[in-house]
Predict the 3D structure of the following.
Amino acid sequence: MAKNKKNTVKAPSVKQNSKKAKKVIVEKVVKKSTKKTIPKKAVVKTVPKKAIAKPVAKKAVVKKIIIKKSASSKNSIKKAVKKAAPKKAITAVKKAIVKKVAAIKPVEIVKQKPAPKLKLPVVKKVEVALSTEKIVKVGVKTKKQLVVVVPQPVIEVSNFPKNKVKTILISQPKPENDKNPYYDLSKKYNLIETFRQFIKIEGIPVKDFRSQRIDILEHKAVILTSRMAVDHYFRMCNEMRVTVPESMKYFCINEATAYYLQKYIQYRKRKIFFGHQTIQDLVDVIRKNREEKFLLPASDVHKEQICDFLDAINIKYTKAIMYRTVSADLSDIKNLNEFDILAFFTPAGINSLKQNFPNFKQGNTRIACFGAATANTLLKNGYRLDIYAPNPKNPSMSGALDQYIKEANKR
């Protein structure tokens, strides 16, 4: 009985056989369906058992329906287009669009091309403006030169014989340099020249200047008629502890006075204007700066022509007396008749002549005067006038002396 137990195999039960058969059937069905349509994972997760064999047919049906609908919609759209817009209307619209595009293109080109060339027309406009300004300035200058100026009075010169000239006394301080027109005269005609100042200039004290109630810093421009005016202008500023600003404008009557400013200021860093010899040469420059208030440093005895001229142009100015002229001591000169010509430049010089030499008789001594005021003062004191400047031929004293000596030394 024990041997039979070892060799015998248990037969499967009925329940087990039925379960196995079911599994085999299910596996066969699943394999058949997955081979054709859907993978195993999709079947297990999503597709129920009943719908495993049917999805292919449903998808085909859906596609056919969509195709039919789309075709019908396209046909309907085409028909609607044909009814609403015939071919002629479409072609007209196309032509209009082409025309608009053609019209737009040149506008775009015009906008693009001038962009890099915008700088050139601006420069041209600036150049034209500058040229017009120059023309206007020239026109204004010509008008300015036509300003009515009081003419100088006619001075009568004597017809005294022009004897030979060997010696000259010039009533001015001796020049520091050899570059002087009077030195040129002495070399040209072998003359003996003597420089002796007949007047002495004294500066007015600060107390006397303050009594005039003048504020120097209120004035933005200064008119300087001589080196003395330059010296006493800066002297007064120093004594009053006034610092002259760098923006101050200087209007000098001649070039020598302008260069003399280097003694007190840096010439290059200032606004300096100068004329040839008279205040009329500065008309254009003064008028351009008419908005400024001018200061005129002067002596107690000064030329009224400058004030009359500034009044005629309607310029705001203040006359500031900063120095006075006094007769110098001329006791070292024993006899004035030793000189062939005496040259005077101011009325104060004539007054000094009368004061220092009351018994002087002119005789053969010729007297030269510069300026109408000096000449009139000479005539009032009973002296004879032989040489006068400025005149139409010679605007300077040196030129008038040169012409006279040239004619006198020929004889």
Summary: The chain is about 50% helix and 15% strand. The chain has a mean pLDDT of 74. The CA atoms of residues 4 and 10 lie 12 Å apart. The longest strand covers residues 317-327.
